[in-house]
Design a protein that fits this description.
Layout (H helix, E strand, L loop, with lengths): L9 E3 L4 E9 L13 E9 L6 E8 L5 E5 L5 E9 L2 E9 L6 E3 L4 E2 L3 E2 L5 E8 L6 E11 L2
Antiparallel strand pairs: 1-2, 2-3, 3-11, 4-12, 5-8, 5-11, 6-7, 6-9, 6-10
């Protein structure tokens, strides 16, 4: 059973989102020996609803794997991505998903925090779980205001 029940395993996104970590074990055969360094996992994120305009203060990226976010309700969420220039996010772009639409963020892509605008705030997240440092945060010198 996959559910976001009880206390989350950890709080992320500046304390605004509970991560129910690796709630399903995926059985993947890729022709290689199983790696202890990491594997695909499914987690549930219970994020607090946000509103526009939104003040973006931090972005993050995951150097060891991509992330797919799938809302578990017919809801919209804000997605912010940025290019990388020598380890610094540049050229920010923001867009809104359609109700129920998910997004797959590529490995090492700078992106904003999970930002549901309506619905339940519950997401299934498919990403890499395991050993190693797979999170890099960058706090912006000047916040970016995402308008309505």
């Amino acid at each position: 059973m996959l559910e976001a029940a009880g206390a989350p395993d950890k709080l992320i996104n500046e304390g605004m989102c509970g991560r129910y970590h690796n709630r399903a074990r995926l059985d993947i055969i890729d022709g290689q020996q199983p790696s202890e360094a990491g594997q695909a996992g499914i987690s549930l994120f219970q994020a607090k609803l946000r509103a526009l305009p939104f003040r973006l203060t931090m972005v993050e990226r995951h150097p060891l794997g991509s992330q797919a976010f799938l809302p578990m309700s017919e809801s919209r969420f804000l997605v912010v991505v940025a290019d990388d220039r020598d380890g610094v996010p540049v050229n920010f772009r923001a867009f809104l998903t359609r109700p129920g639409q998910g997004v797959n963020l590529g490995r090492n892509v700078w992106h904003g925090v999970l930002c549901p605008l309506d619905g339940s705030g519950l997401f299934a997240v498919i990403d890499r779980v395991g050993e190693g440092v797979n999170l890099e945060e960058h706090w912006l010198d000047q916040p970016i205001l995402i308008p309505e």
